[in-house]
Specification:
Distance between the termini: 30 Å
Number of helices: 12
Shape: globular
CATH architecture: Alpha-Beta Barrel
Order of helices and strands: EEEHEHEEEHEHEHEHEHHHHEHH
Helix content: 25-40%
Strand order of the largest sheet: 3-12-11-10-9-8-5-4
CATH superfamily: NADP-dependent oxidoreductase domain
Radius of gyration: 19 Å
Strand content: 15-25%
Largest sheet: 8 strands, parallel
CATH topology: TIM Barrel
Oligomer: single chain
CATH class: Alpha Beta
């Protein structure tokens, strides 16, 4: 079942509603088969994180794109300026700097084997000024090495201020907001303590600015553990299970199951459908290995539940 594609004005191109994220863990052997399955399903965008300094997922994705002459057909998104870790001091190293912008973009271009990244995005560091970092990103855009940029974990106020600065000073605003916090279920806490909840205030800012939301939408971030059939191999820390033990979620799970029965679908597909039927544009980021399994087919079914069925979906007031 092919994924739908939508035109995203803030990125000025068509994207499949599902973006694949190659594993940065031990599942390195899933890359080629997963990329093939994702491409055959109509997917055309990759989230290449390289979490914790991992290199293989970017190298493997780049090699696959080159081997099949598909680089121009795919949208590539990478995170930059991710914190480093000082093992001896047991503390994080802040990399929210112009120097890190240049270093990470150069490294990603080299690892992927491309001369341009379609989008890079930044995690915020609220005590620090964002202006020098955004200026460094725009120097990369002016050089032709990057086409657009997004942000993650910016408060609504910082998001508006950063977008205004980028638009007025540099001529190109923020294109996307990346989040792990958009789910039909109610979370007791964000995935990590410093992450910004996707609440009504953030939704309003997204709508005002007209940016697309790239939402991590695997079982871990949608709360699939509440149905007892989360994808095998997913790491569930105790706090990530406790995150979904909110008193509202028993009733929400029941509504999801009822809706799945009415639409002859599955809870996983209903959650995906809810995600993609928001009042703002959403692209769902899914783990690449999923596309080789029945779980991937359930997500694909959810992408096909269009507006005519959306009135049946469970509602949630953000």
């Amino acid at each position: 079942m092919p994924f739908r594609q939508i035109y995203v004005p803030s990125l000025e191109r068509n994207l499949s509603v599902c973006m694949a994220a190659p594993s940065s863990s031990a599942a390195a052997d899933t890359h080629e088969a997963g990329l093939r399955a994702y491409h055959l399903a109509g997917g055309n965008s990759l989230h290449l994180h390289g979490e914790g300094g991992e290199l293989h997922s970017r190298q493997a994705a780049g090699a696959w794109l080159q081997a099949h002459s598909l680089r121009k057909a795919f949208f590539l998104c990478t995170q930059i300026c991710h914190d480093d870790w000082d093992e001896s001091a047991q503390r994080s190293i802040d990399r929210f700097t112009p120097q890190a912008v240049r270093q990470d973009i150069a490294e990603n271009l080299h690892l992927i084997g491309t001369d341009v990244l379609d989008m890079v995005y930044l995690d915020d560091r609220p005590p620090l000024p964002f202006e020098p970092v955004i200026e460094a990103v725009h120097r990369e855009i002016a050089s032709g090495r990057v086409r657009s940029f997004g942000v993650r974990n910016f408060t609504p106020e910082r998001l508006r201020a950063a977008h205004r600065f980028a638009k007025e000073t540099l001529g190109q605003g923020i294109a996307a907001v990346i989040t792990t916090e958009l789910s039909l279920f109610t979370a007791n806490a964000p995935l990590w303590p410093e992450y910004i909840p996707f609440d009504a205030a953030l939704q309003q800012a997204v709508l005002e600015l007209g940016v697309v939301v790239l939402a991590h939408a695997g079982d871990l971030t949608l709360g699939q553990c509440l149905f007892g059939d989360a994808e095998s191999g997913t790491v569930w820390r105790p706090e990530w299970v406790a995150r979904w033990q909110h008193p509202d979620n028993t009733a929400i799970a029941a509504r999801i199951q009822e809706t799945a029965a009415i639409l002859e679908s599955t809870p996983r597909a209903i959650q995906m459908a809810w995600l993609l039927n928001q009042p703002f544009q959403v692209i769902a980021i899914l783990p690449l290995p999923s596309f080789q399994t029945e779980i991937g087919r359930q997500y694909a079914r959810g992408t096909q539940i269009l507006l005519e069925d959306a009135k049946r979906l469970p509602r949630k007031q953000l």
